[in-house]
Amino acid sequence: MQSSPRYRNYVLFILFITYILNYVDRQLMTILLEPIKQEFGASDTAMGFLTGFAFALFYATLGIPVARLADRWSRRNVIAISITIWSGMTALCAAASTFTQLALLRIGVGVGEAGGTPPSHSLIASYFPPEQRSTALSLHATGTHFGILIGMLGGAVIAEAYGWRMAFIVFGIPGVLVGILLALTVKEPPKLGPPPTSRFADDMKTLIHLPAFALIAMAGALTGLSGYGLGAWSPSLLIRIHELSLVEAGLLLGGVGTIAGIIGAIAGGLLCDRLVQRDHRWQLWLPALGALASAPMMLAFVLWPESHYWQIGDIKVPVAMLFMFAGGILSSLWIGPTYAAIQSAAPAFLRTQASALFLFAFNLIGLGLGPLVVGFASDLLQASYGIYGLRYALALSMFGVLIGSLLFWLAAKQYKPQTIQ
After folding, report:
1. Does a structural domain hold residue 146?
2. Of 83, 246, 281, 368, which cross-links 56 as Cys (Cβ 3.0–4.6 Å)?
3. If phi over 0 gives left and psi between -120 and 50 gives alpha, with beta otherwise, what is residue 205?
4. Are residues 162 and 227 in the same domain?
5. Is the pTM of this model over 0.85?
């Protein structure tokens, strides 16, 4: 689409804000688990299933039919409606009087969020040419890190001062306003190429048989399994083995993870857009190399002796955090280039569904199974290694990153961007 650089950057900014709110609303439940659990008398299992697999199941599964609607109708309208739904549901969580009501509202949040990311990727691909897509999608992806930081810290501060219900109201209402702004100011660009078929199964078959698509999806899913597992259990690792307090663990992981993730995502996009001018396969070679290089860094973070630390004021900073920072940068290199590769490989009328299909595998396996697999392995190893069972379970999970790296490399051999961009 022909548009001024200023306008397409505005579109990217609005979608970036939308992505931040997506992750803010998702993280609120994480930071507010304890006060909600205490008020409703729910079990850890009930709370864990709600925030993990149940959310991932609705979010990932519904993403595909919603993406099909966006490809056949309007991506802008789908995003605007979706953010209004998930933000409204988030605000309504404040009115829940039972655990069941809260569970249904959080499922509503997942249903709304299913229509956020895939249409955004497709819109960005329509506004930005192929040689700028990795950078644009990487900048968009940094919204996850800002969202996690704002949701975790902001939610904790508001809940401590005014109660957990107020946190849902404060972070839910702005999303409704952003949805209205998006609907009024963002234009739906035309889609190039032939229209999609009338059958859902035919569209899915087309995407699955795209060169390299299945390998890319599995590479992302296995990399995500390790990443989500590490993300969920890193606080417990620092608390159990490095003997940090909950606040110390949260501050270190939040600060280090956010900074490293933003650096890695932006650097990956900028570097990839330069490299693809020489060879388009760098959109998958770079993720392969980044994942491979991150594995030893994350392994060092998990296994580094707890006796090695710096005392900075009243805070004990484990030396292991240095490897977490390096690994966080390297592991974030794949995000923008991979999303750009999917958008470039898919026909224009199927881009939203292509993103949704990739995220289906990524979220169902990564978000849905990653924390569960690590927790299960930790329980098995605890009998022999005590608190160190978690450490070794996380170390074993790094095999997912190594296999993902190999699949990214193999996918590069088959990768072919569409001639109509």
Report:
1. yes
2. 368
3. alpha
4. no
5. no
